[in-house]
Amino acid sequence: MQNIRNFCIIAHIDHGKSTLADRLIQACGGVTQREFHDQMLDSMDIERERGITIKSNTITLDYQTADGQVYQLNLIDTPGHVDFSHEVRRSLMACEGALIVIDASQGVEAQTVANLYLALEYDLTLLPVINKIDLPAADVDRVREEIDSDLGLDPFAAIPVSAKTGAGIDDVLAGIVKHLPPPQGDPEAPLKALVFDAHFDTFRGVILQCRVMQGTLKTRDKIRFMHTDREYTVDELGYNQFKLNPRKQLSVGEVGYLVAGVKSVQDIEIGDTITLVDRPATEPIPGYQKAKQVVFSSVYPMSTDEYQDLTKALEKLAINDAALTFEKDSSAALGFGFRCGFLGLLHLDVIQERLQREFDLGLVISAPSVKYKLALNDGTTVEVDNPSYWPDPTMIDATSEPYIKASILIPETYVGPVMELCREHRSDSQTMNYLSAGRVEVTSEMPLGEVLFDFYGKLKMITRGYGSFDYVPIEYRTTDIVKVDILVNKEPVDALSYLVHRDKSRARALHYCEQLAEAIPRHQFKIPIQGAIGGTIIARATIQPYRKDVTAKLYGGDVTRKNKLLEKQKKGKAKMKQFGSVNIPQKAFVSVLRADKE
What we know:
Blueprint: E1 4-11, H1 17-27, H2 45-50, E2 57-64, E3 70-77, H3 85-93, E4 97-103, H4 110-121, E5 125-131, H5 140-151, E6 159-160, H6 169-179, E7 192-201, E8 205-214, E9 217-218, E10 222-225, E11 231-233, E12 236-241, E13 243-247, E14 249-250, E15 255-259, E16 273-276, E17 295-301, H7 307-320, E18 325-331, E19 335-342, H8 345-358, E20 363-365, E21 372-376, E22 381-384, E23 396-411, H9 415-424, E24 429-436, E25 439-447, H10 448-451, H11 455-462, E26 468-479, E27 481-488, E28 491-492, E29 498-501, H12 505-519, E30 527-533, E31 536-543, H13 559-579, H14 586-593
């Protein structure tokens, strides 16, 4: 056990976690040169294309020191984006140490600080690594100062490396062995193993990633999941070394995979504790937290025939992604679909793209919303995230919405525009903290619903890409939320209703009406598109009708004949408007829910 090291790599987005992991794998001979490709641990196409890590991944490496000692290094690669912090949290529970990677040119950023606090929460030993020292803008001394002032770690323990060129990688491996502690535990104690990840294999069912905390796990053992209370028999276990490498047993401190004939998503919970049926542990491993969904949206198939395919696709995604929740939902305009819960907008974006790519589905996604708490007149409290379930305004006593504490790290020159952006998004309070020369942290409390739409994009635009943003949910606060209905030809379209703060309702309704007016084709009659709060119309756009020139056949003569024909046409159009129905094409729904035109 003294020769095992379980560690993960944590960092801000784009500071080079995956590239560093690639170099460590190469240095330990984890793959042959022929099999190697960039971003070895990012297995999904979407991860490679966007250059982000979405799923945590694990690999067991063998490292031989200069004096001939062989160490088993279990590396868990984690995502850097705020939306996937639950993946980071679970990975940290399986480790004793962490490499905290900092970009030599950009320095400490918002997510670096957030991940540091997460790691300290689980009592991990941290080893700072300064990456990208080959860049012309690299400033290692300044970054060492930031490590000391912002992170409170020893600046001289930081190892300068370039994951791109491979410089300093041997120092990192030596540092892992020297500074990070080996696992603790008793191999004879009752079994406790933490399930920190899972993925679905078509032929073998669910393959679990687990870390043995106490005891020993062998093949053919009868095991029980402590949270879900289900029992299985172990078919196979072993190490992850790009291919599954079977072993007879996993002992205390080891990380590996487990196949136990688990058939479906709902049977397991990520973060659960495995123990033996005949010699169970008394209590599960502490620190287990369910992922909290904060953004909700309805997902409908483009054509109603694809509903069954969408059901299967969501079930398969949920096994790989413990944080995705879904329940049945229906809409008069779009038919049957699902109301899904996500961890944030990037999570929603990634799930949407995976559904379209991996399962070849055409989707319509409703406007994302957060969960509001309503105090009703009869003394009860309800939580609502779907505009369809919004009660009658006369029944509502008070409404409250979730607030977040946003931490925005920016260069000093952009302070004014960023403060203005926060105020536009209904920020309550803003404080500034000067971290080092030229770098400011702006802390602001604001509603989560305001961040959903275009906040992050605008922040990147204002700060020319140098702003970084991270947030933690804090509490619910009283607010004035209204439900806005969109009426097409005086009929409400339920899939387009949304919940918004009263001050922002008109601007958003106008955007919806204008987008719909562009996307819906012209009919033979005039179509009004309106935004309404209750019975009050707050915005309108009109689609003009096709107009046939009925007077073309007349030549001169009495004007009354012309008027008679126009009058007849007018009556016909009024009648058509009364009985005619407006066909709203699917692309109209999609265009409305795209981000604002600006």
